[in-house]
Design a protein that fits this description.
The protein folds into two domains: 183 residues, Rossmann fold (3-Layer(aba) Sandwich); 116 residues, Phosphofructokinase domain (Rossmann fold), CATH 3.40.50. It contains twelve helices and eleven strands. α1 packs parallel to α10, α2 packs across α3 and α5 crosses α6. The protein is α/β, with parallel strands linked by helices and 325 residues long. The protein is 42% helix and 18% strand. It is elongated, with a radius of gyration of 22 Å. β10 and β11 form a beta hairpin. The chain binds 6-O-phosphono-beta-D-fructofuranose (F6P).
Length: 325
């Protein structure tokens, strides 16, 4: 492949606050360094269908403050097939995209890796997901904003929980990871967190009730990681059956967690990794995700960040337990 002139940028998977800041950063850093930038709409779906538009600096004006993604996003099944990726490659050839920056989570970066390897195509990833479950970066774009959103919601729930002396099970997102639940529990002064990282061999609910929290407190907040089988409703039902003396309520926060203006942290993370993506292309890197570890921009091979399980520090469980007496 010859010299890179035009860089395509897309957002894929669940949207996350800060994605727009990343689009802005890639566009502006790209233009500052002499590249043409092409916005690709609706993630990989748009790449397959050729939904592209040349981007100028004006196209990304005023978007750093906005949640969601101006490029739209999608979870594209077709791109998981070799035929779908072939069509996407043909679009790149037709419209003149000769490198790609993909902003998304695990699934999106897996697609990016496959595409890059199959067609020997330069692809750079940015970690865009509220779940914070990507290995190789201390935080993902969107995670901090979502934590703050959850914290605000739970602070409000605390008022009513206190007034009625109730136990609230508050369900938060995170897919298979408990970063949001565990850290938000600490931030909200919650009494417990139920997370997928702690398996069912220890019955977390019995443990929690057994700590006798109700003896010293008038209300309880338990933050529960979403789960198809044992989310907040499951635990609330069990408490109702096994401890009928408690007044229990459930609050499932849902998609409001993904919206809203990005925090300063997410804007800075998106801006630095976005500029880092252009730097990576200039250096001739490919198939890497740009992350920030210990305040330094790092380039992590896709194979590493996709395959390695990122786990939160189990000491956070002790912190929460010690502080929730
Ligand atoms: O990956 C981000 C995320 O918000 C997860 O936390 C959640 O499980 C999922 O996306 C929800 O996806 P959708 O918006 O497609 O229902």
């Amino acid at each position: 492949m010859g010299k890179i002139q035009c860089i395509g940028i897309l957002t894929s998977g669940g949207d996350a606050p800060g994605m727009n800041a990343a689009i802005r950063a890639v566009t502006r850093a790209g233009i500052s360094n002499g590249f043409n930038i092409m916005g690709v709409y609706r993630g990989y779906e748009g790449l397959i269908k050729g939904e592209v538009k040349p981007f100028t600096t004006e196209d990304v004006s005023g978007i750093i403050t906005r949640g969601g993604t101006i490029l739209k996003t999608a979870r594209c099944k077709e791109f998981t097939t070799p035929e779908g990726r072939q069509k996407a490659f043909e679009t790149c050839q037709r419209v003149g995209i000769d490198a790609l920056v993909v902003i998304g989570g695990n699934g999106s970066l897996t697609g990016a890796r496959d595409f890059g390897m199959e067609f020997d195509f330069p692809v750079i990833g940015l970690p865009g997901t509220i779940d914070n479950d990507l290995y190789g970066t201390d935080a993902t774009i969107g995670y901090d904003t979502t934590m703050n959103t959850i914290m605000e919601c739970v602070d409000r729930i605390r008022d009513t929980a206190n007034s009625h002396e109730r136990i609230f099970f508050v369900e938060v997102m995170g897919r298979d990871a408990g970063f949001l639940a565990q850290n938000c529990a600490i931030a909200c002064g919650a009494e417990a967190a139920i997370v997928p990282e702690e398996t069912t061999d220890v019955d977390q609910l019995a443990q929690f009730m057994g700590r006798g929290i109700r003896k010293s407190k008038k209300s309880c907040i338990v933050i529960v990681s979403e789960s198809p089988k044992c989310g907040a409703l499951y635990y609330a039902d069990r408490v109702k059956k096994e401890f009928p003396e408690f007044d229990v309520r459930v609050s499932i926060l849902g998609h409001l967690q993904r919206g809203g203006s990005p925090s300063a942290h997410d804007r800075i993370l998106a801006s630095c990794t976005g500029a880092g993506a252009i730097e990576a292309i200039k250096q001739g890197q490919r198939n890497v995700m740009v992350g920030i570890r210990n305040n330094e921009v790092v380039y992590v091979p896709f194979s590493e960040c996709i395959r390695t399980d990122k786990r939160f520090d189990k000491r956070l469980i002790t912190v929460l337990n010690e502080l929730s007496i």
